[in-house]
Write a structure and sequence with these properties.
alpha/beta, eight-stranded mixed beta sheet, 8 helices, 17% strand, globular
């Protein structure tokens, strides 16, 4: 009986995975911007105002021109594993260097012009280099971004005053060796210098967390539920309560389809590890 139930569960998961709309690679579509992955929600039927949109910004390891890199982790990978996100999703690929807020906004404008996007519910999330991009984007366009989540990043733009104007959740681990936690500390200090209360900020400075663990958060439905609680039309743009990210991270990948690495990817990974040992 247990074997039958397990088989039925697996079939349901696979069926859900297959029926979902697959993200599509968009190359050269938006002039003067990035190539990007684009995902449409399964149902675009609307009552009013359109569907929300999530912009995912990857870290430095996914930079380049091979767009399949962007599928290694993050929101696009989560969707391909079967996570249901009732929103449009944009995942640009950065060829290298800092994220450019103006280029990202060009993609948002393109999506808004061509699809039924709710302009009051546009969100940005990212980690590492993408965390920098998230904060730079939010500081530059606080009147366009309904809420943002920046994981283990920092900020490159000089004027951070805009970060006080939108609901913002920053997460960084004290054991992060790739991007020191002081980078997020600096951003939070700048926010609190303007307003010591920082009513629109959640800062989780997690003791002992390394650089890679925050990637788990992109696979949690709770993350997207939290984003969707916010709108540009909210009174005083109040921030919704957060959740226990350390506890919730244990549920990452729960119920999602496991994606095996291709033979080529596994071979390249083994070769890379072997070269490091030399």
């Amino acid at each position: 009986m247990k074997e039958i139930l397990a088989l039925l569960t697996a079939l349901l998961l696979i069926g859900s995975f297959i029926s979902a709309k697959a993200p599509v690679a968009k190359k050269g579509v938006v002039k003067g911007s990035y190539n990007f992955w684009f995902h449409e929600p399964d149902s675009t039927a609307q009552d009013d105002g359109g569907k929300p949109m999530v912009v995912f910004l990857h870290g430095a390891s996914l930079c380049g021109t091979n767009m399949d890199k962007v599928r290694r982790y993050g929101t696009i990978d989560a969707i391909e594993r079967g996570l249901k996100i009732d929103a449009y999703v944009v995942a640009p690929q950065n060829p290298g260097g800092a994220w450019n807020p103006q280029k990202i906004m060009k993609i948002i404008d393109w999506a808004s012009e061509n699809y039924d996007v709710d302009s009051t519910r546009i969100y940005v999330i990212g980690m590492s280099l993408g965390g920098y991009g998230t904060l730079d984007m939010s500081a530059t366009y606080p009147d366009r971004i309904a809420a943002a989540v920046a994981l283990c990043g920092g900020a490159s733009v000089k004027d951070l005053s805009g970060l006080n104007d939108l609901p913002l959740w920053i997460v960084h681990g004290t054991a992060d060796r790739a991007v020191p936690v002081k980078q997020s500390d600096r951003v939070v200090s700048a926010i609190r210098e303007i307003d010591s209360v920082a009513p629109r900020l959640i800062y989780d400075r997690v003791a002992g967390m390394n650089h890679g663990r925050p990637a788990r958060f992109f696979y949690l439905p709770d993350l997207y539920d939290w984003l969707f609680m916010h709108s540009l039309d909210d009174q005083d743009r109040r921030i919704a309560p957060g959740f226990d990210i350390v506890d919730k991270s244990k549920e990452a990948y729960k119920g999602l389809v496991h994606k095996k690495k291709s033979y080529k990817s596994r071979k390249a990974y083994r070769k890379k590890r072997k070269s490091r040992r030399r």
